[in-house]
Each structure stands twice: as structure tokens, then as C-alpha cells.
Amino acid sequence: QVQLVESGGGSVQAGASLRLSCAASGGTFSSYAMGWFRQAPGKGREFVAGISEYSQTTHYADSVKDRFTISRNYDEKTLSLQMNSLKPEDTAVYYCAARMWGLSTAQSQYPFWGQGTQVTVSL
């Protein structure tokens, strides 16, 4: 069973960049498809980006396409989310999640979650 710990959140101004990381332990890292989700205040959790077990497939929400990049490092067992050109509407708690049997955009399909890291973007 995999355990996930996010880091890298913070407070930045619009237009800035941040890089989130998610460290995985337990289980076999390459057995899991990984995803980033976020939850803004008063809103439901939404899919941001996902990457398949061997990085052959990535998928992004339309709202972050061309600004965010998801990647994973198998030696370090980490998942990353490079976020560029941040906007105030990107403000949310960001979660990484893991599942077996392929990439999914549905949060209900992910049994393993980190505790989240706060990203705040101000004008």
C-alpha cells in the first residue's frame, strides 16, 4: 500500500511559478497511475493532471493545459507538478493520488491520497 506526502505549496503572485512534489513510499511506484487534484474553498475536488504508470500517457484539465506539467521520477519515487503562469483561480489545496489499473480523471477511482498542500495565488 502506497503512502503519499505532498510538498512545495506556498503563496505567490499571479504569473509566478511553483513546483509541487509528492513523495511515495510503500508499494511499487511503477504499479500506480498518479494524479493531481485540487480543492478550492467552497468547491468540490477536481482533477488537475494525471500520468500513467510508465509515463506513456498524461492528461490535463482544460483549465491548466499549457501551463502545468506533470512528471514522475522512478528513482526518487516522486511525482511532480510544475505550475507556470499561475492565476488567482489556481488557489486551492492540491492533493496527489494513486491508483492501480490505469489513469483516471475521477477522484472516486483513487484509493490512495496525500494530505494536501496549499497553493495561494494573489493579484
Largest sheet: 7 strands, mixed
Order of helices and strands: EEEEEEEEEEE
- Uncertain runs are none
Mean pLDDT: 97
Total strand count, please?
11
Distance between the termini: 40 Å
- Proportion in β-strands: over 45%
Rounded to an integer, what's the Rg over CA atoms?
A: 13 Å
Q: What is the number of helical segments per DSSP (H or I, 4+ residues)?
A: 0
Shape: globular
Helix content: under 10%
SSE class: mainly beta
Note the topology:
Elements: E1 3-7, E2 10-13, E3 18-25, E4 33-39, E5 45-51, E6 58-60, E7 68-73, E8 78-83, E9 92-99, E10 112-113, E11 117-122
Parallel strand pairs: 2-11
Antiparallel strand pairs: 1-3, 3-8, 4-5, 4-9, 5-6, 7-8, 9-10, 9-11
Q: Can you put this structure into words, describing what you see?
A:
By secondary structure, the chain is mainly β. The chain contains no helices and 11 strands. The chain has strands at 3-7, 10-13, 18-25, 33-39, 45-51, 58-60, 68-73, 78-83, 92-99, 112-113, 117-122. The strands form 2 sheets. Strands 2, 4, 5, 6, 9, 10 and 11 form a 7-stranded mixed β-sheet that branches. It has a 4-stranded antiparallel β-sheet with strand order 1-3-8-7, with no helix packed on it. The chain is globular and about 40 Å long. It starts with a strand and ends with a strand. The model has no long low-confidence stretch (mean pLDDT 97).
